[in-house]
Design a protein that fits this description.
The complex is a heterodimer of chains A (260) and B (222).
Chain A (H helix, E strand, L loop, with lengths): L1 H7 L17 H22 L16 H23 L6 H33 L7 H21 L4 H29 L9 E2 L4 E2 L3 H53 L1
Antiparallel strand pairs in A: 1-2
Helix pairs in contact in A: 1-7, 2-7, 3-4, 3-6, 3-7, 4-5, 4-6, 4-7, 5-6
Chain B lengths: L1 H18 L1 H21 L3 H32 L3 H7 L4 H31 L6 H26 L5 H12 L1 H15 L7 H27 L2
Helix pairs in contact in B: 1-5, 2-3, 2-5, 3-5, 3-6, 3-8, 5-6, 5-9, 6-7, 6-8, 6-9, 8-9
Classes of the chains: A mainly alpha (260), B mainly alpha (222).
Chain lengths: 260, 222
C-alpha cells in the first residue's frame, strides 16, 4: 500500500513516462465508438418514427438489446479467457487480465441492461420487474459476476489469484445455462426476442429503425472493445505498480539518503 | 482417489463426532431460521404449508454456508491445510472427501428439518421417495459447489463475506428445482417431479466433475 502512495506523489512518477504505452489506435477506437453512440441516440430519438403499437417506447429498443448483447459478449469473452488461462499450454497473464477486464465491463452493461429493461417493462408489462427466465437469469448473472469481481479484488500472489479467479469464472459460467433452463421451466411468460424470431425467421423491424438498431449493436460493441482495452491496460499498470512500486520507492529513499 | 476420499471424509466426520460443532451450532441455527420464517409469514397454516418446501430449502442453503465454513475452519487451525497438502493424498480425493462429509452432515440436518417443517408449518409429507431423492441429489450439488468455493475462498482474509456472495447465486437452480420437486411431492403429485430431479442430478454431476478436475490446481497453491 505504501508503495502506491509513493508512486502517485507529484514529481516522482507523474513526470516519468508510463511503462505501458497507450496503443496507437485506442484513441481512434474511442472516438469511433463515441460517434456511433451519439449517432444512435440522434437517430433513435429524432429521426426514426414512433412505433405503431409501442409508440415512443420503441426508442428504448435501439439501446436495450445492444446492451444485453454486449453483456453476454463480455461474459463469453471472460469465460473463454479464463478457460484458456486454466489450460496449461495457453496459460499467460494476458488471458487473466482479459478475463478481469471483460467481466468488469460486462457487469456494467448487465446493470444497464437491467435498468433499461425495467424502464421498458413498467409501461409494457405494468411492472418494474417480472420473474421471467431472461430477466431472472440476467439478474442472477449480475450477482454471479459481482461475486467474481469481488474474488478478483482479493489481494494475493499473481498466479494464485489468477488461477483462483479463473476457476471462479468457470463455476459461474457453467451455472448460466442451468439457471436459464430451470427458470424457464419454472415460469415462462417472456415474449420471444422480436427482431429475429426463430419460429418465423422474419425481421420485424424495418427501414430506418433497422439501421438504427444495427448501428446501436455496432457502436456498443465498439464501446465494449474500447473500455475493455482501457481496463486491460489499467490492470497491467496496477500489476506493474505492485511488482515495481516497492523497488522504486526503495531506490528513491536511497537516492535521498545519498543526496544528504 | 476414492480411498483418499473415504479417508478425508472419515477424518472430517470423526472431528465432527467429537467436537459436535455442527450438531450444537448449525442444527439450532437451522431451527431458528425455520422459526423466523414462521414469524415473518404469520401463524396461518394456509400460508405456511404451501411455502414449506421453499422455506425448507432456503434453510438448507443457509446452513450449507455454515457447514462449509466449518469444514474449512478445521483445516485452517494448526496448519492442517499444509498437512493435508503434504500428505500425498489425491487432490480430487480430498475434494470428494470434504464434499462427502459436508453432504453427510447436511443430510442429517435435512432429516431434522423435514420433521420441523411438518411440525411447525403443518406440511403433509407425501411422496417420500421424491423427497428423499431430491434431498440426495440437491445436497450433493450443494456440497460440491460449497466445497469448491470453500477451497477457492479458504485462506483469504475476506472469506466469511466472500463465500455467501459466491455460493448463493450459483446454487439458485438447486433452490428452484428442489423446491419445485418438493412442492410436487407434498401436493401428492410426485410423478411430475421428474424433470426437476433431472436438473438436480445434472447440477450435482457437473459440479462434482468440475471440483474433481479443478481441485488439483486449487489445492496446490492456495
Amino acid at each position: 500500500m505504501s508503495a502506491r502512495h509513493v508512486i502517485s506523489r507529484p514529481g516522482s512518477a507523474r513526470t516519468r513516462a508510463l511503462p505501458v504505452p497507450r496503443p496507437p489506435l485506442l484513441g481512434a477506437l474511442g472516438l469511433l465508438a463515441l460517434t456511433g453512440v451519439v449517432a444512435t441516440a440522434w437517430l433513435g430519438l429524432f429521426v426514426t418514427p414512433p412505433d405503431e403499437f409501442m409508440g415512443n417506447l420503441v426508442r428504448l429498443l435501439y439501446v436495450h438489446p445492444p446492451m444485453a448483447w454486449v453483456a453476454f459478449l463480455a461474459f463469453g469473452v471472460a469465460s473463454l479467457a479464463s478457460l484458456l488461462y486454466l489450460w496449461p499450454r495457453t496459460r499467460t497473464e494476458y488471458f487473466d487480465r482479459l478475463a478481469g477486464a471483460s467481466a468488469e465491463v460486462g457487469v456494467v452493461f448487465t446493470g444497464l441492461t437491467l435498468v433499461s429493461g425495467s424502464i421498458w417493462g413498467r409501461p409494457t408489462w405494468g411492472a418494474w420487474w417480472v420473474w421471467d427466465p431472461l430477466l431472472t437469469t440476467t439478474a442472477l448473472l449480475f450477482v454471479l459476476y459481482l461475486g467474481y469481481l469481488a474474488l478478483r479484488r482479493v489481494p494475493g500472489d499473481f498466479e494464485v489469484r489468477a488461477r483462483r479467479s479463473a476457476v471462479g469464472a468457470l463455476i459461474a459460467f457453467v451455472d448460466v445455462p442451468i439457471v436459464y433452463f430451470s427458470v424457464e421451466w419454472w415460469r415462462s411468460l417472456h415474449q420471444a426476442p422480436t427482431v429475429l424470431n426463430p419460429t418465423t425467421r422474419k425481421t420485424y423491424v424495418h427501414g430506418s429503425m433497422a439501421w438504427t438498431l444495427l448501428l446501436g449493436f455496432v457502436s456498443f460493441t465498439l464501446v465494449y472493445a474500447w473500455l475493455t482495452a482501457h481496463r486491460y491496460r489499467l490492470a497491467k499498470l496496477q500489476d506493474l505498480e505492485d511488482t515495481e512500486g516497492l523497488d522504486r520507492a526503495l531506490s528513491e529513499r536511497r537516492a535521498e539518503g545519498d543526496a544528504r | 482417489m476414492l480411498r483418499d476420499a473415504a479417508l478425508v471424509a472419515g477424518k472430517d466426520l470423526r472431528i465432527e463426532m467429537r467436537s459436535r460443532v455442527a450438531l450444537n451450532q448449525v442444527g439450532p441455527f437451522a431451527i431458528a431460521v425455520l422459526l423466523l420464517f414462521g414469524l415473518a409469514l404469520g401463524p396461518d397454516r394456509a400460508v405456511l404449508a404451501p411455502a414449506s418446501a421453499g422455506l425448507f430449502w432456503v434453510a438448507v442453503l443457509l446452513s450449507t454456508i455454515l457447514a462449509v465454513q466449518r469444514s474449512y475452519a478445521i483445516e485452517s487451525a494448526d496448519a492442517a491445510r499444509d498437512g493435508l497438502r503434504l500428505s500425498g493424498l489425491d487432490p480430487a480425493g480430498i475434494f470428494l472427501g470434504k464434499a462427502g462429509a459436508i453432504a453427510a452432515e447436511l443430510l442429517v440436518l435435512e432429516a431434522g428439518l423435514t420433521v420441523g417443517v411438518a411440525l411447525l408449518y403443518g406440511a403433509h409429507l407425501n411422496g417420500a421417495l421424491v423427497l428423499i431423492a431430491s434431498c440426495a441429489a440437491g445436497t450433493l450439488g450443494l456440497a460440491a459447489v460449497g466445497t469448491l468455493y470453500g477451497v477457492v475462498a479458504s485462506g483469504l482474509r475476506t472469506r466469511e463475506t466472500l463465500l455467501p456472495l459466491l455460493f448463493l447465486p450459483v446454487v439458485a437452480p438447486v433452490l428452484l428445482a428442489a423446491t419445485k420437486a418438493w412442492n410436487e411431492a407434498l401436493a401428492g403429485t410426485p410423478g411430475r417431479a421428474g424433470s426437476w430431479l433431472e436438473i438436480l442430478a445434472v447440477f450435482a454431476v457437473l459440479y462434482i466433475s468440475i471440483g474433481t478436475v479443478a481441485s488439483g490446481s486449487l489445492l496446490e497453491d492456495g
